[in-house]
Design goal:
This protein is an alpha/beta fold. About 30% of the residues lie in helices and about 25% in strands. The radius of gyration is 20 Å and the shape is globular.
Length: about 350
């Protein structure tokens, strides 16, 4: 089958990979749409995310996928050829302590698409266990189906924050993850919601999606503006979705005493200096996001209901043959890009 191959750092090419061989409980999915994620960009630019290193080239990236079932194994019970599905990209072992206690997102033996050494979704076909191929309702396109993966992250982050109606929220960063976190927080009844984002197109998207106030960290005093808008109290919940050192350091400055901080973004730097004394004095609770857990079906329902506008994320489309163009666009943050597929 054809696949978009990472052949070296900053080098991708169209090539061939062996066709996947579905097991008895697997479905064979013809891939119709794949989102280009910031984590893919990390691998493209550096060959690694922390300790997760591409050790052998060529390697297939991509994990935000949707497609059509074209064949099923003999033990598949519900899905049939022709069904449209959103692919949940992490396949846990099902036996370790996190798995058996319901936190399968923390499985150390997880096989996650596009995370070394597991090849990803920039290819023609995927073999997926039926449980992780979620039916896609007719109201949602394949592109929206691919965006279920980031929405599942935003929804999981909102769950961790235990948002209640009327909670004030700050979201630092309005890339695709920041925007789906905005959608999830609003769906949970949050408000007001403040968003900080340096790129014009992404700030405009946050406004359209319902943010109360949108700030530009390059020109606006973000911390002072949020404190002024909350009468000096700070927000109930702050999400970091920029993956920047500055945003990580701002988290504790804008959250109220005894508030909740939810870091989502991944910094390029392994070590990030944080003012831990401020964390202690404020008595904040910090809930780290590791992908998502049990949120795929709910994310699909949220999108189907119209409460999450996933089409707002997709700004550019590329054929598999021009995967390099998608990476260059995202690397340069050019042409108002939010999410290329």
């Amino acid at each position: 089958m054809k696949a978009g191959l990472l052949t070296a750092i900053r080098e991708v090419a169209l090539g061939e990979m062996p066709d996947p061989k579905p097991g008895p409980g697997d479905v064979l999915v013809a891939v119709r749409s794949v989102g280009v994620c910031g984590s893919d960009l990390h691998y493209y630019l550096r060959g690694c995310i922390g300790s997760q290193v591409v050790e052998e080239f060529p390697f297939v990236l991509g994990h935000e996928a949707a497609g059509e079932v074209v064949a099923v194994g003999p033990d598949v019970r519900k899905l049939r050829p022709g069904d449209r599905v959103a692919v949940e990209p992490g396949i846990p072992c099902g036996e370790c302590e996190p798995c058996v206690t319901g936190r399968y997102n923390l499985c150390r033996a997880v096989r996650f698409l596009g995370t070394p050494p597991v090849h990803g979704a920039y290819c023609e076909y995927l073999a997926v266990p039926e449980r992780y191929a979620h039916p896609l309702p007719p109201e949602l396109s394949y592109d929206e189906g691919a965006m279920i993966e980031p929405l599942a992250i935003g929804l999981f982050a909102s769950d961790l924050a235990a948002i209640q109606p009327g909670y004030s929220v700050a979201i630092l960063g309005a890339g695709s993850i920041g925007l789906v976190t905005l959608m999830s927080a609003l769906a949970a009844g949050a408000g007001p919601v403040f968003v900080s984002e340096p790129l014009d197109a992404r700030r405009e998207a946050a406004k359209r999606l319902g943010a109360t106030q949108v700030l530009n960290p390059r020109t606006d005093p973000v911390v002072d503006a949020i404190l002024d808008a909350t009468d000096g109290r700070g927000v109930d919940v702050v999400f970091e979705a920029a993956g920047s050192v500055e945003a990580h350091q701002q988290m504790v400055e804008v959250v109220r005493p005894a508030g909740t901080i939810v870091p989502i973004g991944s910094c390029a730097e392994e070590l990030v200096p944080l003012p831990l004394a401020s964390f202690r004095r404020k008595g904040v609770e910090v809930r780290f996001v590791r992908r998502f857990c049990h949120t795929y079906p709910r994310a699909i329902g949220l999108a189907q209901s119209g409460k999450a506008n996933l089409s707002a994320l997709v700004t550019h489309r590329f054929p598999l043959e021009d995967l390099a163009g998608a990476f260059r666009l995202l690397e340069d943050y050019s042409d108002g890009v939010i999410k290329p597929v």
